[in-house]
Write a structure and sequence with these properties.
The complex is a heterodimer.
Chain A lengths: L5 H41 L19 H8 L11 H32 L5 H12 L4 H11 L5 H4 L10 H4 L8 H12 L4 H8 L4 H30 L2 H5 L9 H7 L8 H22 L15
Helix pairs in contact in A: 2-13, 3-8, 3-10, 4-8, 8-10, 9-10, 10-13
Chain B lengths: L7 H5 L1 H22 L1 E5 L2 E4 L3 H6 L5 H36 L5 H14 L3 H10 L5 H8 L11 H13 L3 H12 L3 H9 L4 H12 L1 H15 L4 H7 L10 H11 L3 H29 L5
Antiparallel strand pairs in B: 1-2
The chains are: A mainly alpha, B mainly alpha.
């Protein structure tokens, strides 16, 4: 047998140390991942659980499909209690969709103007955008409610039978690029794009809009999708807004319908958690579709080509 | 630029300018204006100067007592939540920034609670988890600890609403992750040659290099957590004994349930001033601890 030299021995102990370090790293990160995801896995299991008591294990003790059947079988996924998940999802979409569509592009245009055009007062505009970035939304909320419910304005939206309109107070701001955070994110991204591209496009005879649409848009794609995704999530999850501007019960979005439907004599855990899963399924699906473009997922997003 | 239209940028910012006046400037001024009046009947208000503000800070009045309590509760919430979110997200981002297999899967796993955490369905799930027979207590019993009456004690209820926010550290983590990747490898290499260990490197290279991002994340989370609403409303509804009755919940009740816009506006102005003072103090202090490369 060969004699192991001291150098070889030290290499071996070093390897063992490295392996231990690797092990600790993975153990730590998997433990954190477990705590992060277990509540959601458990909710999945609980939606199939027929027993009244909950347990730590996510595997249902008494397998049942009653919750899922109930959630989807009644007309419009409704039920005897008069709610309808399908209607609640549509109601939610009536302020999420305009919000995502208008805010994504109105803030992009504003950021383009501030980042790439020269005009007097640009510094003031930028200062106002950054200044409102840190302003608490709470301070605007009461006067805006007074504004929307004033006798001159409220007929436009309150109790309106048109689609989207009953939720006007929740999405009107998106027409005017008032989300400072989106503007800020776009401006930061514009700054990472070399101005040489602009110059080259101008020399080729492009105007501002052609520059934005044909030259910058392909580069901006990841940030546009990221901003749209963040607006979607924030708007979909919003609770206080829909709560303040709520109308009749049949105009309630998901965030107001779900808290009304707790556990009671007819609704078991299975019912409650099935509805919760339906309630969160849309943002999850959208997140996974948009994920590969998500800026944070590739921290070194550079400029290709 | 030849032929550049000077008026174009002004035309393009008109929508924003209109929006700024309607949605920011007008409500900001009007909020203060409203706070100077007092409601004397459902339809009547009278000018009262700073009386609303005096009322909010007199502990022998009902609203004063409520308001001072909500301030205390909000401070407790913020002072635990913000540092916890920053520490957890920085540590996880640090591990993920090292060479690790399946980094994409972990990043997604850590971001999912952020996508869903504020959703009402998940907030309601949280309430079930902390029930007396809920998942959390079942877990505690598994490892041999006594179950806790989460919603029966002030500290238990506060823990449950802090936990749901700390659980959503995903976006803070992603910002840290991007910053960590921008720390040049040469610094670590030089430190390794000089014999500095991993902990020393983290404290003396990593932390100083990302202080601008710590500042950014800290301020953003501070402004956000001072305005927490959904958790305290749906998980604890302010209880027990107002121990999670945060300021935004009180403003909601006063302004939108009792229709007292004047007192509600005064409260939101105090909240605004508190957030502003903290933000200014943090920015002022930043020259002592934030390191800018250029």
């Amino acid at each position: 047998m060969d004699k192991i030299t001291s150098a070889q021995r030290s290499i071996q102990t070093n390897r063992a140390k490295k392996r231990l370090k690797q092990f600790i790293k993975y153990l730590l990160i998997i433990t954190v991942a477990f705590f992060m995801l277990y509540p959601l896995v458990w909710m999945m299991g609980a939606s199939f659980n027929g027993t009244l008591m909950s347990s730590f294990s996510f595997i249902p003790k008494n397998f049942t499909l009653v919750g899922w059947e109930n959630a989807f079988s009644a007309p419009g996924w409704g039920s005897a209690e008069g709610y309808s998940l399908l209607r609640a999802i549509w109601n939610t979409m009536q302020y999420v969709l305009p919000q995502v569509m208008f805010m994504t592009f109105s803030t992009l245009l504003l950021a383009f103007v501030v980042a790439r055009m020269h005009f007097k007062g640009k510094k003031i505009v930028f200062a106002l955008i950054i200044g409102t970035l840190l302003m608490p939304a709470t301070v605007f909320r009461i006067p805006m409610f007074v504004f929307w419910t004033s006798s001159a304005i409220s007929p436009i939206w309150e109790g309106s039978s048109l689609p989207f309109m009953p939720y006007l107070p929740l999405w009107a701001g998106s027409l005017f690029a008032i989300n400072s955070f989106s503007v800020f994110m776009y401006i930061q991204f514009f700054r990472s794009i070399p101005r040489d591209l602009d110059e080259a496009a101008y020399i080729d005879g492009a105007n501002k809009f052609q520059l934005l649409y044909y030259v910058l848009m392909p580069i901006l794609k990841p940030i546009v999708i990221t901003v749209a995704l963040l607006i979607f999530i924030a708007s979909f999850n919003d609770y206080q807004g829909p709560l303040i501007y709520r109308g009749d019960v049949d105009t309630y979005p998901l965030s107001l319908v779900l808290p009304m439907l707790g556990k009671d004599s007819t609704n078991t855990y299975a019912h409650v958690f099935t509805r919760s899963i339906v309630g969160v399924s849309l943002p999850i699906i959208i997140f996974f579709i948009a994920q590969k473009y998500f800026v944070g997922n590739d921290a070194n997003v550079g400029i290709k080509g | 630029m030849v032929g550049e239209k000077k008026w174009l940028p002004y035309v393009l910012i008109i929508p924003w300018a209109i929006g700024f006046v309607i949605f920011k400037f007008y409500p900001f001024i009007n909020s203060f204006y409203l706070s100077l009046f007092q409601k004397i009947s459902p339809r009547e208000t009278v000018f009262a100067g700073i009386d609303n503000y005096v009322l909010l800070f007199s502990s022998n009045e009902f609203f004063g007592e409520q308001f001072l309590n909500s301030l205390k509760v909000t401070f407790i919430y913020v002072f635990f939540t913000v540092p916890l979110v920053l520490v957890v997200s920085l540590l996880v981002a640090y591990i993920l920034s090292k060479k690790i297999k399946g980094v994409g899967i972990f990043r997604t796993a850590f971001y999912i609670p952020t996508v869903l955490g504020a959703n009402v369905a998940v907030v309601l799930l949280w309430r079930e988890l902390f029930e007396s027979y809920g998942l959390v207590n079942q877990g505690l019993q598994l490892i041999g600890m006594n179950p806790v009456n989460w919603f029966g004690t002030a500290s238990g209820a506060m823990t449950s609403i802090i936990a749901i926010r700390v659980w959503q550290f995903g976006s803070t983590m992603l910002i840290f992750l991007a910053a960590l990747k921008n720390v040049p490898d040469t610094l670590y290499e030089a430190a390794t040659i000089d014999g500095a260990g991993k902990v020393r490197q983290f404290m003396s290279i990593t932390i100083p290099m990302i202080t601008p991002v710590i500042l950014f994340n800290g301020v953003m989370r501070l402004v956000e957590t001072f305005q927490v609403f959904t958790g305290p409303k749906l998980i604890t509804n302010g209880g027990p004994l107002d121990s999670t009755h945060v300021i935004n919940l009180l403003i909601y009740e006063v302004a939108f349930e009792n229709r007292n816009f004047n007192l509600g506006s005064a409260m939101s102005w105090v909240l605004f001033l508190i957030i502003m003072v903290f933000t200014i103090l943090i920015f002022r202090s930043s020259k002592y601890w934030v390191y800018y490369q250029d």
